[in-house]
Design goal:
Elements: H1 35-64
Length: about 80
Amino acid sequence: PDDCPAFVMRRMDAGWQYGSLSRAPQPSPPEPMGKDIAALLDEAEDIVNTAAPDIRGEFEKSKKKRRFGRKRKKKKG
């Protein structure tokens, strides 16, 4: 309060470092260039295309499994 003569603004200052909340802008990394990049991407595409049928097969198997992976016993009667 401005009118109170006993008011003293206190601040807990225990060696804090005050700074801004934003970081300085970082320079963007250089873009890779050359035919090596195209060859690398082609190789990665071949790997993915080779693995895709196996991965899809695994998902299809998991869909076919029954709940909790167990078969229920048939009731008599």
